């Protein structure tokens, strides 16, 4: 059994077989062969070894011609490794005796070899481990060929284990088959984490290297509450976590009973509870959870799940589906909110050394006005199908907001000239995600109809922490006093200007912060569908007076650790059975 500590980004516990996805995107299943397929499988292995040897020899020849024999000898060593008699014997034994597929046998044996080298001291030994990983990838490419499987093609329940997952890969996950996932890199607030929370699947990121310790098909536990990944758990650990899963199901059943009850405090304060969604299909879950509308529709995933820039009709079809499904409830559609580095369909920036401070979100949209206008046209057309609103992300100054509104006005004029109906009085909002936006809130209140605080980015930019970097991820927290003060400043400024304000970051969906946020003055929260019942439960269990006392106390604390400790104590008093 091996326990790995990472960063919890989506709560819950998942138990299941590992699906290992390496940097090449390979899926390496533990597939058992019928007896009459053994000889064919060994023939496949032999062919893969021969082709890999030829590939290595060609690499050796090219490198020798360019750099000389000393460099070419590296590949000579690789060729010797892949043709090692003992290695081939081990691989064939797994195929003959255990009926493993050639792919699984290669991965299992070579990763065990690499682990031995990694455990030895010295840089030279570590490099030998890298050599073995290189050989493994070469063999797998030959064996899998065109049979490489993407996450979208997974059709059985698995735990996904990867070095990292891109937004498009996470967007392609099927929640009915992906029980949970863990990645070696990444941090809280990353798009991978956001999607995990949206899908309601347990997830842990930033564990550090572990893929060499696991093979596909092995038992894995993901503890999304404690940030733990447990490989090959023993029976005692399995039994304990199975009991925890059963308790979670019992609590979930209790929470389901709240779906048709009002989200209001014990002393009668009504709180607007909205949903955050990635895909139109999630509206069904939002309605099941009894939300008052959609506070954040992340439209950027339309750009990530296809092979080309989405057309206006594709945009409109998705937006119309959401608007119609919500049956008159408000739907806030946020325009494209990703960096060019995450969007392969967009031209790569010339000098993007720091994507989080570069061309992304509203900046990217304003650089590609034709694509931006196309999206806005589709959003405007969807106003005929429901209470649709538009929201601009990552606005850092008044000029950006005014330029975005000008593009919106242009889109309106285009539609009017074409005789296409839409609601000209569409409500326009902006995300509050950077400190400069908070500082200038008293000016922004005259420019928009509503605000939504995006704490995922606000934390990142306030604390100067790359939210996807595991080495500094411990510094990334919504509990930092500076973040909490900025949230309060934004709420106070919006209230003073008479404009509604909500909060749609991960902070809003964590029951730990619910009383604090209400005490700071928020009356609207936008959360993932999975988080809605727990947040509603907290709201219905407290009073505004108590929440205000919690907020007053938190504003006197000096560290994130003290804030979290105090909030945990208060939540435990309120709901002793609530996972924290």
UniProtKB/TrEMBL annotation:
The lineage of its organism: Bacteria, Pseudomonadati, Planctomycetota, Planctomycetia, Pirellulales. GO terms for molecular function: kinase activity; metal ion binding; phosphoenolpyruvate-protein phosphotransferase activity. General (non sugar-specific) component of the phosphoenolpyruvate-dependent sugar phosphotransferase system (sugar PTS). This major carbohydrate active-transport system catalyzes the phosphorylation of incoming sugar substrates concomitantly with their translocation across the cell membrane. Enzyme I transfers the phosphoryl group from phosphoenolpyruvate (PEP) to the phosphoryl carrier protein (HPr). Mg(2+) binds at residues 433, 457. Its main location: cytoplasm. The gene is ptsI. Residues 254-542 form the PEP-utilising enzyme C-terminal domain. This is Phosphoenolpyruvate-protein phosphotransferase. Belongs to the PEP-utilizing enzyme family.
